[in-house]
Design goal:
The chain is an alpha+beta fold. The chain has 3 helices and 10 strands. A hairpin with a 4-residue loop joins strand 1 and strand 2.
Length: 208
Amino acid sequence: MKIKKILALALSLSLLGVAGCSTQKAEEPIKIAIKLTDGRQMTGELYPDIAPISVENFVGLIEQDFFNGLIFHRVIEGFMIQGGGYDETFYEGNLNSKETASIKGEFTSNGVENNLKHTRGVLSMARTQVPDSASSQFFIMHQDSPHLDGEYAAFGKITEGLEVVDEIAGVETTAVTGTVLYQGMEYPQQMTDVPAEPIVIETIDIIE
């Protein structure tokens, strides 16, 4: 009889556990606002259910005011706009990026499921050829780019202000020549697809 009671209790607790799991709510998107120094603004949302590491990293940088004063340094019409790595001294030849610790790349080819497609307005993490090299730089899709799916960590989307993305993507661009400091030595480098006039982020904020 005691064994039957123990088994019944265990079954009851197991069912309660299953029920508890089934009622857990998915994490809500985190709403953000990207404000430029010229007053233009984009709002969007981040998806912790899709890319929790990327979202946690991005939110942490926002809370540190990391992005304030940084620029969109690379724009390609019909493709994307990229920022989050350089300030305005970039135009003076300082091509050393303002970056932070690298994070895990949350995309399929790196062993992480991520089904968010690189469609117009989607935010994704920039990286080098090294899969786990993303840190602070991000890009916003100007137009759909399916060749990026599974190769970069998409983690959010612009929901309002896509016309600002259009405007930034369509600006006149130039090349900037400068130096990069590596292991105590300066090396010449040139960056292309740079907006001819600085496009500066005033703030990125979490909004209700």
